[in-house]
Amino acid sequence: MSADKEDLGLKAGIEVHNQLNTREKLFCGCSTQMRGEVPVGTVVRKQHPVASELGEYDVAAQYEVMRDRVFVYEAFRGETCQVEMDEEPPHMLNQEALETGIAVSLMLNCKIPDEVHVMRKAVIDGSNTTSFQRTMVVGMGGHMEYNGRRIPIDQVSLEEDASSIVGEEGGIVRYRLSRLGVPLIEIATGLLEGFSPKDVEDIAFEIGMVVRSTGKAKKNMGAIRQDLNVSVRGGARNELKGIQELGMLSVAMENEINRQISLISLADELKRRGLKKIHDDPVCVSDFLSGTENKILRSTLDSGGNIFSVVLPKFDGLLKRPLFEGKTLGREMADVAVAFGLKGLFHTDEDLSKYGLVEDFENLRRHLKVGKEDAIIVLGEGKTKGRVAKEIIERARILLKGPQEGTRSVSPDGSSRYNRPLPGSKRMYPETDIQPVPISEDLIEKIRQNLPELIPKKAARFKSQYKMSDSLVNEIMRSPHADIFEESIRRSGADASVVANTFVSVAKDLQRREGVDIGPVPDDLFFDMFGAVSKGMLAKEAIPEVLKYAAKHPEKSAAEIMGDLKLEMMTEKEIEEVVSKTMSEAESNPGKLVGIVMSKVRGKADPQLVIKTVKRLSEKR
Amino acid sequence: MYSLDIDRALKAKKISVGDRVGVTKDGFTVEGMLLPRIELSDTSSLVIKQDNGYNVGIRYGKGVEIEFLGKGKAVSHRHAVVEAQHDSKKPLVSIMGAGGTIASRVEYDTGAVFPEFSPGDLLKSFPQLKGIANVKGRELFRLFSEDMTPEHWKIIAKESAREIESGADGVVLMHGTDTMNYTAAALSFMLQSLPAPVVVVGAQRSSDRGSSDNLMNLVCATNAAAHSDVAEVSVCMHATSNDDYCYLHQGNKVRKMHTSRRDAFRSINTLPYAKLWFSDAKVEYLRSDYSKRSGRKIRLDDKMNPDVGLIQIHPGIKPELIEASKKFFDGVVLSGTGLGHVPTNPSNEKFAQSVVPAVRSLVDSGVPVVMAPQTIYGRLDLNVYSAGRLLKQAGVIGDGADWLPETALVKLMWVLGHTKDMDKVREMMSTNFAGELSKDIEPSSFLV
Question: What pTM was estimated for this model as a whole?
Fold first, then answer.
């Protein structure tokens, strides 16, 4: 879609979340390393809805409960204590995280509250053992500049990260507790009107860079997550959650714009077809389809489940309509089933011969007295007992009204899927286990005096100081390690090009080719490793190997790693021995000789020294 | 309560807590609902709940403007509309509230907590109860566990007896967890010849959170009251950190052994009566030596003398403390070291002080002294070491007992409510009234 976004009445808002690399978690002394190796134990829990003051359960909360799930939490030594297990009240608020939050707020021109109040935000997907997330406002009413325009920053908050999900099977959801309680900074913009998806993406990048400028941002994959609110004129606000890769933000936004536009035209089409209301509820057709040969439906019946049919009047042909690239309405409906733990559904707008269901559907059409202009959806349900079919018909009824508010989860490819209704506003209440934290003028002033330099400002200096190209400077800026680029050079005396190459190319190669995330490698290791390179103790060719090892063993020092990998540089004498041996074996052509020797000593010898030695020994001969 | 300055400013503008206000400081305005100030915290900051739900504090002072933006709606607690339907096939369980937060509802704006005890409220919050029993609910009082007194125990005992006499098939008492075992022990002595279960239950996690243990504990407790045949006073709490089953503990042999965990309550010197499974309501009995349900008539025996003290023996304890205790108490429980010991200083060591003379003085002046083990687990034996023998000689009661210090305290209150005669006290203390004294300790009961 390339239409002029201003015509669409496009409204957006971004929330950028960044994990903080503090020594301890937000409310306990556990490490934030998230190494999560072998669990030392698990705890099995259930959660239930809690009535609000109106005597009603929160819609979103109730919704999750319908899914009737059991949560298994994995605990890790040093990364989990009784606080994460919801077996002990939270400890004092982490001062390092609080001060980082205030610093970020000041950099974004926010007002700092005189008192920080920790709140409980109800979360009932099980990702928090408490069933709420602790969160607090540390900055309000700020702004930043983007291309000469003022971007409102509504709020900076500090919150605890949730557990990371391992998987879900048969109503049992497994979570890892190592991430729970890691401090997160959340920065929410105000309403962004008249910005293109690309602009919005760039604004998110600029915001992320402010956090990274503090040097306290985590660098690992998944350390940054973006949520995006989008609506078009005639559409409705949808929250797209968990966009990890920045480059996917604009894609996700385009998709959502298209989805809302498609839903508006779908509602028009249904009206045009004369549909006013969907009357009939789903019916159980287990008896009628008891002879089905479809494997999925068969196994539902065999395991005591039931088959339900949902009739969508006047929907013929609409289920194969695309909502955005790669997602049809039928697929969107199937996502609802998937959200409830089912495998999917079958409908009349797809090729039913693939599933051996042509006859079944024809019979069903006759049996239910359904016209040709109507569509039929069929699905098998076990534990959910028809609740999913009911949800699907509700979703279809809503289609008549056009786009509705909701939250959607974003996949790595930028497509999104149905998630659950937006949580109600009643879900925030005070964390009574923690007293409000007063913020003194003195503390704010102290932090203001020590604000870090913004990365883009530093980058301007890289260019002149290290004579780097614009594109390289740009890449360094985008690297999670931009904050330690200069310090690495200053502390190690290494060549700027070696450092730049490491943070840009080596990091990307390791990620792409070997799936190694160097995010967890401590800053000190980089300083020591570059130091070793500049002192000639480590070949720069060995950097990838060191980092690969360091990512797995972030607790080891550079010296230990070099020892473990036997990467100490060879002495001139040792090189001489390899060269003589190689010469005696076969090759006498100095050019080829260098190649063969290098392949034997790569990473352990300075190439210049190898060339010199080969030259010297060849001449001697 | 806000500071005088703020109070004055609010009054001048006719603003009250709950109103919508705008607070402007340094050119920036925070809008939202004015919240009450939480007790014991800094009273010079205004607390505003913003529209997005977040609270922030704005220090009041020169240059801070408060503006009235609208009248707040009164926050009231609405009762739920769930109708309790009687099912004649199901037993009747009377659920009574004595305090704690097991059945309460948070008011999300202020964080204030309302109790909920009407059957409708209970069924709304705990819909699973419907499948277990017909329930009726009633609040006796709303007390923090630590504020409970022997007078409250008497009221609870009386009301429990009345519920059973008027046809309840079981009683559930919701109680704060800190002193739950004292109450349960007291009930075990006061409710004699109990024909039906009386189950004390609580929650270690507040009821505002979806992870609270209140649901499982209450469901299991109601199940025990309705369907188990354990006609005893018991405590029903999480058995493990998982939400899988509860233990039904003997009320006078159970103790809170952790400040905060769900599975803090452990049976001491005995096994729990049963495991109560949450998901399928199965009752798995672990013992058979308890009184079974029957049609016998309950006998309320709630005479209590609250003037009993519990003193923990420790290195360097001053004999004067024990000596002086007779001024306050009609009876004293010593939580002794090891098998039931106190300092006796047999070798006249210069720093040590024997407390035996003080103990003797108490007994001689008619104040019974009862021993209990501070090790919590295990049985007293005053015959093994000379310290024990000296205490026995001085008239200390309790040799061979395996009671908890708390149970010994409650029992002594109950016994002294019946007699002041030292011989009679001695006899009653040695009589097993409610399973508080066991003949043999099951080896597998340690640290379960």
Answer: 0.89
